[in-house]
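Re: How this chain folds, sequence and tokenised backbone to follow
Notation: Tokens come from a learned vocabulary of local backbone shapes, not from coordinates.
Start of record: The labelled sequence and token lines come straight after this line.
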Amino acid sequence: MPGTTIQSISLYKLLVPLKEPFVISLGPLLAVQNVVVVMRTADGLVGYGECSPFLTINGESVDTCFVVGQYFAPALKGRDALDLAGCLAELDRIIYGNSSIKSAFDIALHDIAARHAGLPLYAFLGGHRHKALHTDMTVSLGPPEKMQADAVRFQQEGFPAIKVKLGGPLHEDVARIRAIRAGIGPTHPLRIDANQGWQTADNAIAVLQALGEFNIEHCEEPILRQHFMELSRVSAASPIPIMADESCGDEHDAARLIQLQACQLLNIKLGKSSGFHRARKIARLGEAAGLTLQVGGFLESRLGMTAAAHLALSNPAIQHCDFDTPLMFTADPVEGGFRYGPGGRIDMPTGPGLGATIAEAWLRRAEQVHF
């Protein structure tokens, strides 16, 4: 279709400081370092995408994404933006991996396709506003007293669930959770995320069993992702349900984990899956296997997180949302997009497409390249 031919693609570096360091077992994060893709068609449609690369998870940085994006842009220019499968296959043909920057192009293409169809992106994906979305709020890794104070504040702010970063020695992580439970009480929904920090199956089992008394909903990625063959043993021995995160990048990872009966939950992220195309395959596999699903992210702005929220509305098996990181930014570069309501509620945009853009003032001052 000549009208939907991709006419231009622009890449921008989006750099935003965080209010305070966000610490996980893989190390501290001090600032947002993302890449934004803006794609325009001959008939004036504009699609936006964003990725938040993570060196220790998807092996990408803002600089690698900016460079690899310059391989993608000339290859897609002149193609039909509505040929989603063909465009995304071209990205895979050009380079293996690089799921983060691929996700930004995937989101921009889906934004254009949904705008062209006149549908909100979740509806274009076959979803419905069948449920209210609510995000949890994450407590960064640190001393027990600081983690307790943050958890109490998040509870007072009305977040329906609190997620806690762990991944240290057994006695330290138990002390952290004991302090948090002393602050928020025994029943407020509590989730934990080790980010592979307990490393081995035996160590993870010991920590999980020690935490069993604290009424924890689930634990994300307790062991090194390379040890996924051991995850079923951890799940069988753990009093806390296990969610695969770093070990579940694409649909092939999901299929392996399901076949191994490795976990009870899967965490889907657009930046791990290369975007909607593969994320929806993961969701369908998880749904068919009877697993509970979560959609999360890295350090995306409300633009990338709005894309994640559209994904969360596309499949009823997606029950948990982890969309809190934009609340950690010192500034908000996004126009439109979802809004945070009371109690962690996510209020979605109602117009066609993604419904989110980056403010022109932010784009003008960003490092950029145009095709």
The chain has 13 helices and 17 strands.
